[in-house]
Write a structure and sequence with these properties.
globular, EC 1.1.1.391, oxidoreductase activity, acting on the CH-OH group of donors, NAD or NADP as acceptor, 3-beta-hydroxycholanate 3-dehydrogenase (NAD(+)) 2, oxidoreductase, Rossmann fold, alpha/beta, 7-stranded parallel sheet
């Protein structure tokens, strides 16, 4: 095997991406499809799933879509069970779990945040990662070349983030979950890593910047400039850059990497 060939995941991987019908999750799902993987996604948005199924190219003229999908709230354990029933039906097993689903959560001072919004952020960003990991591990143990779990955290999982405490707390917790599972599952050949995206282009960060601008009494443009000024490269990360890192972690070149939190952020210095 050449070094170049080591950088591409083997064809035929069976991949589950949570929150995979839009944003970073969709970029990751499409990237795996490009390498010949069979991909199933779940998403809480029926509109996003419909858009995915109407826009993607079929795997073959007579065959099914390259990406299959389940409508599911990742914080609902019954829905998680339905996702894995569909995974068994569509993929017949699992090689890679990408725990991507998450929400931005509320913006506000700690004494202003609604308790229900705090609990919702923890349920979707953290508890759901546990629900999916516990169901995926028995399947990943059967993976031919060892399974892989990739958890999406955030640069807010290595930096403090004022007025975004629910989000930051869950993203820090994901790193702890990742490192603990890497130790626990390593002897069975399952690798567990975290990707920590920075300020990623797209509608989600636009909503976050708008909310933060309102909180601080700034214009959107001034708030966006403040964000960019915290990045050493002075630009936002793209979803495709995050997806490329996920592919690397599942390639032969990434087989020796486990228990790591890898920032893809242009070096965000402070939040």
């Amino acid at each position: 095997m050449t070094i170049l060939s080591m950088l591409t995941p083997r064809a035929g991987l069976r991949v589950l991406v949570t929150g995979g019908a839009s944003g970073i999750g969709l970029a990751i799902a499409q990237a795996f499809v490009e390498t010949g993987a069979r991909v199933h996604v779940c998403d809480a948005s029926e509109q996003a799933i419909d858009a995915l199924q109407h826009t993607q190219e079929p795997a073959s003229k007579a065959g099914p879509s390259a990406i299959t999908a389940t409508l599911a709230d990742v914080a609902d354990r019954d829905a998680v069970d339905r996702v894995f029933a569909d995974v068994r039906k569509q993929l017949g097993g699992l090689d890679v779990l990408v725990n991507n689903a998450g929400i931005a959560g509320p913006t506000g001072g700690v004494d202003e945040i609604d308790v229900g919004e705090w609990e919702q952020t923890v349920d979707i960003n953290l508890n759901a990662q546990f629900y999916f990991a516990r169901r995926a591990v028995p399947l990943l143990r059967e993976a031919r070349e060892g399974g892989s779990i990739i958890a999406l955290s955030s640069v807010a999982g290595r930096l403090g983030y004022a007025y975004r405490t629910p989000y930051s707390a869950t993203k820090w917790a994901i790193v702890g979950l990742t490192k603990s599972l890497a130790i626990e599952l390593g002897p069975t050949g399952i690798r567990v890593n975290t990707i920590q995206p920075g300020i990623v282009k797209g509608p989600r960060i636009e909503r976050v910047i708008a909310a933060r601008a309102q909180q601080l009494g700034l214009s959107y443009e001034d708030m966006e400039r403040r964000y960019l000024d915290t990045i050493s490269l002075r630009r936002m990360t793209t979803p495709e850059e995050v997806a490329a890192t996920a592919l690397f972690l599942c390639s032969p070149a990434g087989m020796g990497i486990s228990g790591q939190a890898i920032s893809v952020c242009g070096n965000v210095e402070v939040l």
